[in-house]
Structure prediction request, 470 residues.
Amino acid sequence: MNMILLFQDDFVGAGRVRLSGQRLRHVLDVRRAKPGDELSVGLLNGDMGTATVKDISDESLEMDVSLFSPPPPALPLTLILALPRPKMLRRVFFSAGSMGVKKIFLINSYRVEKSYWQSPFISDEHIGQQLVLGLEQAKDTIMPTVQLRPRFKPFVEDELPEMARDTTAMVAHPAAAGPCPRNVSGTVVLAIGPEGGFIPYEIEKFSACGFKPVTIGERILRVETAVPYIISRLF
Amino acid sequence: MNMILLFQDDFVGAGRVRLSGQRLRHVLDVRRAKPGDELSVGLLNGDMGTATVKDISDESLEMDVSLFSPPPPALPLTLILALPRPKMLRRVFFSAGSMGVKKIFLINSYRVEKSYWQSPFISDEHIGQQLVLGLEQAKDTIMPTVQLRPRFKPFVEDELPEMARDTTAMVAHPAAAGPCPRNVSGTVVLAIGPEGGFIPYEIEKFSACGFKPVTIGERILRVETAVPYIISRLF
Prediction:
């Protein structure tokens, strides 16, 4: 982690935090911090700054915190992903979190295996852990929102039209005629299909909401590669 | 896998292959193929095409193979990576292989942990496995070459100047003044540092060989995210 994310509950006084658990272990074992050392910190959904180690032991760490700079800008992007294989999902959250994606929808699709919806990796706790790690990697504090939509039809019929209004809306589709655009201005809504892609009915539903099918070429990338690849091209 | 990679040793007659092991398991368990089914195949470093299942059992699979189309174009890129954490390395090989990277150098750097050079994941066998999976993902047949350079100085002094000649050479560096260019034409040599980045001495050595330090913004990405992110921007 390049920054330690702090939560309101960590504060034990004005400008003073006390950490234990995983963050303490990181500071002790990886940073090997001593009293007087400065660490990069950020407050969840708040500003970033530095913390000076005051007191550190095997049980707890106390630091004086000074927050003075805003987090980096968020990407103007809503990312809609057909629920990926659970093992991949963790890495997708990490990388999306680190790139500044703030709105993620995980949706069902014909080619999503039903068992994926039972995975513990889609619990709020697991998702939150990966997102925090992504924020700490990139030095950002704004927690993304992740929403699950286990039914495709109500999602595309009831929510998608409003979501796509006044945006550049696109669905990544290997068989699409047009290339993925570069360096887009304004807000983007991007949908990425499951392994094997969205089925024609699903592509039609997206198209009906104004989504343009776009391709990134003949190579079929795994979702964890496709997400940074497409985001980098768009922004 | 979206294509099964075949090797010369798989051929048991003209246009006839026999597979066992992992590829047989994939065809049986994931594809649930029956005699008469067609599968997408490619010959290592050769053409791609289709194979028709002739005979399939728990012990072996025989297919008639027809190869008729060339693999997709390779990226005109040499990728130089400070040896990443072994767990990440596997995913980097997979994604680099799937994106069409054909020349990879893993080099030492001050901030590379020495123990990484002892990892079994940098054996030819492990690297080869991930690269094959990447090719099968993207439908490509051309095996990338991976070369290890455990000593920084001889690499940058003896090999790098020649490698960078007549190319766009750049080193990804968070503190760089210039942004990573988009849509570059010609051959690129791209160096990506370790966690924490290259040290100033290393950046100077790269600069002396004509490498321009470039940045992808204030967010620090993990190497497995940075590789697809930067490649997508460049090509």
Summary: The CA atoms of residues 35 and 163 of chain A lie 49 Å apart. The helical segments of chain A are 21-30, 86-99, 124-138, 152-164, 200-208, 223-234. DSSP finds six helices and 13 strands in chain A. Residues 124-138 of chain A form the longest helix (15 residues).
